[in-house]
TrEMBL record:
This is site-specific DNA-methyltransferase (cytosine-N(4)-specific). Its EC number is 2.1.1.113. Keywords: DNA-binding, Methyltransferase, Restriction system, S-adenosyl-L-methionine, Transferase. InterPro entries: DNA_methylase_N4/N6, MeTrfase_CN4_CS, SAM-dependent_MTases_sf. GO terms for biological process: DNA restriction-modification system; methylation. One of its GO terms (molecular function) is N-methyltransferase activity. Belongs to the N(4)/N(6)-methyltransferase family. N(4) subfamily. The keyword S-adenosyl-L-methionine applies. It holds the Pfam family N6_N4_Mtase. It catalyses: a 2'-deoxycytidine in DNA + S-adenosyl-L-methionine = an N(4)-methyl-2'-deoxycytidine in DNA + S-adenosyl-L-homocysteine + H(+). The keyword Transferase applies. Residues 20-55 form the DNA methylase N-4/N-6 domain.
Length: 349
């Protein structure tokens, strides 16, 4: 995630904007910022976990509606079959796992806004640290931002004899829904698409005047596997997936990555009005041994879409816990982040 400040600053700098686009929307920070300032927005992400969380950023429902739906599902017959194996026995207490599987199974079939919000709440409470006081997460001790790999996690719990404790799912849902939704600003409309940015953009009809986005950082390849447990909740297999289909970060080399980004900037230009702004936050892992500024500039140039670069600046040193690389857990400290601002001056071919 990038911090909310980045899209908020861009929105403040472009008060003329009427609709905002984020072609790599992740968890929907740009969409939420747009909602805060009263604008509709469109987000695209190829990762189902990201798209589900982002979708919830656009929804208007009360915490009461979310809790009622959860209560109704859990009050019915238990559904689905719990995955088997050590990981599942260690990760969730038996009754909690039955509730979790029932919610997963029921929500797979539901498409209402309330169901979408409950799904996002579930993704948020699925795993995280164990508190001393009231539980906030359903799992045994785990990081919140990514799910540990099963073998590592089982070893961690077994070595400490850390048995999973009963967590009443409904109570955790209720607390989380209240916290998220009690003070939510009015929804402003918009939509999140699950899919590839270029393909999706080419199928859209709306026009945008502000694009605020952050593509995958160069060298960071764990967006999919880190979210394997949340992907399972959305209907994926109960294991760490191997591939990461369609992820732009999966390009074989730097040139291909630059080209893939260029295609996104070109597709975005085709959906923008003349004079539109494009604001990109980008970085590269130190291990990738590359200059993110040069890469990003090359991608905008390669797009040949009429984007004129107005400014490139260091993103500053964001608060440590907010940094994307830190969020995803594995990066060193020296990640360099830059912001690039461009204006659409020529109409794209
Ligand atoms: C740096 S993250 C975006 C984070 C976002 N700014 C936030 O606040 O959560 C980049 C996102 O790009 C998505 N992505 C990668 N390849 C994509 C593609 N071909 N089409 C659409 N999204 C893609 C990844 O799934 C990931 O969620």
């Amino acid at each position: 995630m990038f911090p909310l400040d980045f899209p908020l600053q861009q929105l403040a700098a472009h008060p003329e904007a009427t609709r905002v686009l984020d072609p790599f929307c992740g968890r929907g920070t740009t969409l939420y910022a747009a909602r805060l300032v009263g604008l509709p927005s469109v987000g695209i992400d190829i990762n189902p976990v990201a798209a589900s969380i982002a979708q919830a950023k656009l929804i208007q429902v009360t915490p009461g509606a979310v809790v009622r739906l959860a209560r109704q599902i859990l009050g019915g017959a238990m559904q689905g079959k719990a995955p088997e194996g050590d990981f599942w026995q260690w990760c969730f207490e038996r009754e909690t796992l039955r509730e979790l599987v029932t919610l997963r199974e029921s929500l797979l079939e539901m498409t209402t806004p309330t169901a979408a919000m409950l799904r996002a709440v579930m993704l948020g409470i699925l795993h995280g640290p164990r508190n001393k006081n009231l539980p906030s997460y359903l799992s045994n001790q785990m990081p919140r931002t990514y799910a540990s790999k099963p073998a590592y996690a089982v070893k961690f719990w077994a070595q400490r004899d850390m048995q999973p404790v009963r967590v009443p799912t409904l109570e955790v849902i209720e607390r989380r829904a209240k916290r998220l939704l009690d003070a939510a600003p009015l929804a402003q409309g918009g939509k999140v698409y699950l899919g590839d940015s270029v393909e999706t953009l080419d199928g859209l009809r709306q026009k945008f005047d502000l694009v605020v986005t952050s593509p995958p950082y160069y060298g960071m390849r764990t967006y999919v596997s880190d979210q394997w447990l949340r992907s399972w909740f959305l209907g994926g297999p109960p294991e760490v997936p191997y591939g990461s289909h369609g992820q732009i970060a999966r390009q074989p080399n730097q040139e291909a990555f630059i080209q893939a980004l260029a295609e996104v900037w070109a597709a975005a230009a085709r959906r923008c009005n003349q004079g539109a702004r494009l604001a990109i936050r980008f970085g590269a892992l130190p291990s990738a041994r590359t200059d993110p500024e040069q890469m990003l500039l090359a991608s905008v140039r390669e797009s040949k879409a009429g984007w004129a670069v107005k400014e490139v600046r260091q993103a500053g040193t964001p608060v440590k816990r907010k940094r994307q690389a830190e969020q995803f857990g594995k990066a060193g400290n020296a990640i360099e982040e830059i912001d690039l601002i461009a204006e659409l001056i020529g109409l794209p071919r």
